[in-house]
């Protein structure tokens, strides 16, 4: 928001939290839930923004507003699937996307059968939660029973996937017309706390062979083209399996990854500015490809979690330390 305001754009912000981070940068703020589509559409109709963006997986609301205003946008099918892991599995079947092996169990016996064939255990997921909420690691039959019941209590179904022993990458990109632009990759590491996943570090460039990152981006671009994404930012969570040398898709959606990676880690590490490139795409102007030309050689950047809470999601990690070539840069506090 700060960078966008500095470019001279007037910002309109909405959030269910009246003290939302970044609210100080907006010209008009509305205390509205992203699920309140009529209210959001009324706000959009009044102000007629040139662009609409959500920093979290609230892509249906964004697509509805873009559709009403006639703005370029990803398909509603893609937006819905990005918010619902069951719908994403349907989309993967339709377009042959390389998702991690998994099932949508009809009942607990289906879950048991799948668990018995998963050598490293399974991950139980609530389909319509994000930011690592509602994702549980089950390594024993007792874990499976417990987390199956917890996930089922949300009454939105559940997804069970095999645990893949590998390296997690977050990829950013953007489709402009028929052109795909790469906007950096970061590697994420997780710890498990109370059978939930807690982000412990983020590094860039990824500590992995360049050829694997290249393969990941090639797969990412193919996914975007299969989904016919045009004129939209896109993000993907993928995992490289060191066992079978395959790259699997975990999630994909019509937005970028989080603000810290996009505006701090990637620019510091790779010398490119994905957000400035996105801003240059707004309206009728030509995109500024110079924003994706490196201004310096790659530098090793790491974001280290330094304080953990007691709850179950990665929101518990609310203090990070940012390092560039092992030199401390700043402390980042996340609400």
Question: What are the salient characteristics of this protein?
Answer:
globular; 31% helix; four-stranded antiparallel β-sheet; alpha+beta; 10 helices; D-amino Acid Aminotransferase, Chain A, domain 1; 3 domains; 335 residues; eight-stranded antiparallel β-sheet
What would you note in describing this structure?
The protein has 335 residues and is of the alpha+beta class. It folds into three domains: 2-73; 101-162, 2-Layer Sandwich (Dna Ligase, domain 1), CATH 3.30.1490; 164-333, ATP-grasp fold, B domain (D-amino Acid Aminotransferase, Chain A, domain 1). Helix content is 31%, strand content 28%. The chain has helices spanning 2-6, 37-47, 59-69, 76-83, 85-95, 108-116, 141-152, 210-226, 259-270, 274-280, and strands at residues 12-14, 28-30, 102-103, 122-125, 135-138, 159-162, 166-176, 179-193, 196-204, 232-241, 246-253, 301-307, 319-324, 327-333. The strands form three sheets. Strands 11-10-7-8-9-12-13-14 form an eight-stranded antiparallel β-sheet, sandwiched between helices. Helix 2 (37-47) packs across helix 3 (59-69) and helix 3 packs antiparallel against helix 4. The radius of gyration is 20 Å and the shape is globular. Mean pLDDT is 89; it is low at 310-315.
How helix-rich are the residues, as a percent range? Answer: 25-40%
Question: Got a strand count?
Answer: 14
Supply the CATH class of the largest domain.
Alpha Beta
Mean pLDDT: 89
State the fourth-level CATH superfamily of the largest domain: ATP-grasp fold, B domain
At CATH level 3, the topology of the largest domain is: D-amino Acid Aminotransferase, Chain A, domain 1
Strand content: 25-35%
The count of domains is 3
Helix-strand topology string:
HEEHHHHEHEEHEEEEHEEHHEEE
How are the strands of the largest sheet arranged?
A: 11-10-7-8-9-12-13-14
Largest sheet descriptor: 8 strands, antiparallel
Instruction: Tell me the Rg in angstroms.
Output: 20 Å
């Amino acid at each position: 928001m700060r960078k966008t305001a500095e470019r001279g754009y007037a910002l309109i912000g909405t959030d269910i939290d009246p003290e939302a981070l970044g609210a100080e940068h907006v010209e008009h703020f509305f205390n509205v839930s992203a699920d309140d589509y009529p209210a959001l559409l009324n706000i959009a109709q009044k102000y007629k923004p040139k662009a609409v963006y959500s920093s979290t997986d609230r892509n249906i609301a964004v697509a509805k507003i873009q559709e009403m205003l006639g703005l370029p946008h990803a398909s509603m099918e893609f937006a819905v699937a990005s918010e619902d892991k069951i719908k994403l599995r349907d989309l993967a079947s339709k377009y042959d996307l390389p998702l991690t092996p998994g099932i949508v169990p009809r009942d607990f016996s289906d879950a048991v059968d799948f668990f018995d064939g998963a050598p490293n255990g399974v991950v139980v997921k609530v389909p319509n939660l994000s930011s690592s909420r509602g994702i549980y690691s089950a390594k024993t039959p007792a874990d499976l029973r417990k987390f199956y019941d917890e996930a089922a209590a949300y009454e939105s179904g559940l997804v069970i996937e095999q645990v893949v022993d590998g390296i997690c990458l977050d990829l950013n990109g953007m489709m402009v017309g028929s052109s795909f632009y790469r906007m950096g990759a970061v590697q994420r590491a997780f710890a498990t706390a109370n059978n939930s996943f807690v982000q412990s570090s983020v590094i860039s460039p990824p500590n992995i062979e360049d050829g694997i990152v290249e393969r990941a981006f090639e797969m990412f671009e193919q996914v975007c083209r299969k989904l016919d994404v045009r004129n939209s930012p896109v993000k993907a969570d993928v995992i490289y399996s060191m066992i079978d040398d395959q790259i699997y898709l975990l999630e994909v959606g019509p937005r970028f990854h989080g603000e810290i990676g996009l505006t701090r880690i990637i620019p510091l590490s790779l010398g490119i500015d994905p957000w400035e490139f996105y801003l240059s795409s707004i309206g009728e102007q030509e995109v500024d490809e110079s924003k994706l030309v490196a201004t310096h050689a790659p530098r090793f950047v790491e974001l280290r979690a330094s304080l953990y809470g007691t709850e179950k999601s990665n929101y518990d990690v609310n203090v990070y330390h940012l390092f560039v070539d092992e030199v401390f840069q700043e402390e980042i506090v996340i609400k």
